[in-house]
């Protein structure tokens, strides 16, 4: 069924004409281009992904480039739309780009992965966390970061250590929310924490009955498995009804403007997050010096992904995508801004990240 759906989309774009091809630059022998694809207009508002990527390119070129050639990015906005993303994925291959940093969500990555895999284009997603992304074996597809399992385990472990016993889960009824909620429920169960409720809707009309139910079952914590902006009103409603009940999230709370939506509601809000104190090298200092503010996790992921692609090209002595993929798939204790990372061939991600729980609003 998955093959049929993707085949249909490809046929559709072939029949309608691929207008996106004309917007790409020609690639000269004096430059190496890598693709950068994500919902630009959306994510540039609340993450620093682009800045992390730009800093990596700037530093690499200052160091002499890659294989003696300047590194350049081809940035495209997929609008978090599967059709647009598929079209861009095909044009990346047609324009001779052998490595892409992108796409953003697991759902979009799930669609484009087959295109990159079949065309032998390396893709490193800087943000997708869904555990089902690698349902099929993909030699050219990689994840820069932790999947939902890692975040769920960190949240459940923290709740157990802090004496939580009965939790509720609020999640969106979509691929992200259902996947994350399932992982949370499993992780809580391993820590002997009972899930007393799992709901997909919190509204002004329902909040009183929801809180009455949670109070009746002695709920002592809530895990949110939904994305911005869909979590704004539910969290405000929960916090408005109970100022003290702890609320937990993970990558769904990774937005530079997150706290701006919850002014007056930030008490006891936590997120599972990478430990920034474990960053290596002078990245943090250089980023702050360049942009005037601290990096977020997406800036670090984008920076690390570009650096890994450059390292792979240098090590292989070529820009050939198969050689890049071979290098990345054999990575072991490779030095990065995250520390020494290794490739996990089962989850297709680079691992050894330090994930802990951060209290927001402090």
Shape: elongated
The SSE string, one letter per element, is HEHHEHEHEEHEHEHEHEEHHHEEEE
Residue ranges: pLDDT <50 for 5 or more in a row?
A: 1-27
The class by helix and strand makeup works out as: alpha/beta
Describe this structure in words.
With about 350 residues, the protein is an alpha/beta fold. About 40% of the residues lie in helices and about 20% in strands. The chain is built from 12 helices and 14 strands. The chain has helices spanning about 1-15, 40-45, 50-60, 80-95, 105-120, 150-160, 175-190, 205-215, 230-240, 285-290, 295-315, 320-330; strands at about 30-40, 70-75, 100, 120-125, 140-145, 165-170, 195-200, 220-225, 245-250, 270-275, 335, 340-345, 350, 355-360. The strands form 3 sheets. It has a 6-stranded mixed beta sheet with strand order 7-6-8-9-10-14, with helices on one face. A 5-stranded parallel beta sheet has the order 2-1-3-4-5. Helix 9 links the parallel strand 8 and strand 9. Helix 3 (about 50-60) packs parallel to helix 11 and helix 6 (about 150-160) packs across helix 7 (about 175-190). The chain is elongated. The model is unreliable at about 1-25 (pLDDT under 50).
Describe this protein with a few key phrases.
alpha/beta; six-stranded mixed beta sheet; five-stranded parallel beta sheet; 12 helices; elongated; 41% helix; 362 residues
